Amino acid sequence: MNAPGYFISFEGGEGVGKSTQARLLGDWLAGLTGREVVLTREPGGTALGEELRAAVMHGQDMGPRAEALIYAADRAHHVETVVRPTLERGGIVVTDRYLDSSVAYQSGGRDLPAHEVEHISLWAARGLRPDVTVLLDLEPGYAVQRRAAAEGKGGLDRLERAGLDFHTRVRNTFLERAAADPDRWVVIDAAASIEDIQAQVRVDVAVRLGLTPVVVEATGIEGPGSDPEEDAS
């Protein structure tokens, strides 16, 4: 397709259901728009990314700066080899985590200066930001119950083992970033059911991407500001 692609990121703490919601949205967008949809994640969206993910998630302990640089290296390769090529083809990229996670975790969680982490991330990505960022928000104490299930599936990773204070700081940073850029961010209560969350995600993402008339035609459900008589985007 000749039209520019769409770039959507899912953010949030551990155990909020990002991968599930990203997959459901990607499947829906593929059917709705007929465009190529690439589901990916950071870190780990490439072969190199999987190696970096293993190092940063399950390897030896490391300092915050080393951690931030590994994430940036993964992002640079991921954007260059997966994200930009898909967008240039007019496709849709739906990623489980992107640069906002770096700021939330390495700045909010690890206490590195936020502007430094963001600068490194944007430099790695050559300034590429998502069109829409969906924040699945969940109180960290409640999320612990979901993460506990991972203990019987190979154990918790380095981030999942961090304490409640760490995850509370991460959550607060996400919410602060969302409040500062409401045109890009959509905040959704992740305590709801999978079906209810996905329904809200679809409505909000469609509105942000200008797909609301298409959604109305396909589902008969009007989202905020939709007009069934408008031409489909």
Automatic annotation (TrEMBL):
The alphabetized list of GO BP terms reads: dTDP biosynthetic process; dTTP biosynthetic process; dUDP biosynthetic process
| GO MF | ATP binding; dTMP kinase activity
Query: Is the keyword Nucleotide-binding in the record?
Result: yes
Q: Which reaction does it catalyse?
A: dTMP + ATP = dTDP + ADP
Q: Which Gene3D superfamilies match?
A: P-loop containing nucleotide triphosphate hydrolases (3.40.50.300)
Q: What is its EC number?
A: 2.7.4.9
Q: Name one GO cellular component term.
A: cytosol
Going by the entry's taxonomy, the superkingdom of the source organism is recorded as Bacteria
Show the CDD domains listed in the entry.
TMPK (cd01672)
Q: Where does ATP bind?
A: 12-19
Domain called Thymidylate kinase-like: residue spans: 10-200
tRNA-binding is among the record's keywords: no
Alphabetical keyword list = ATP-binding, Kinase, Nucleotide biosynthesis, Nucleotide-binding, Transferase
Tell me, what does this protein do in biology?
Answer: Phosphorylation of dTMP to form dTDP in both de novo and salvage pathways of dTTP synthesis.
Concerning its family, UniProt says: Belongs to the thymidylate kinase family.
Q: What is this protein called?
A: Thymidylate kinase
Name the source organism: Promicromonospora thailandica
Q: What is the lineage of its organism?
A: Bacteria, Bacillati, Actinomycetota, Actinomycetes, Micrococcales
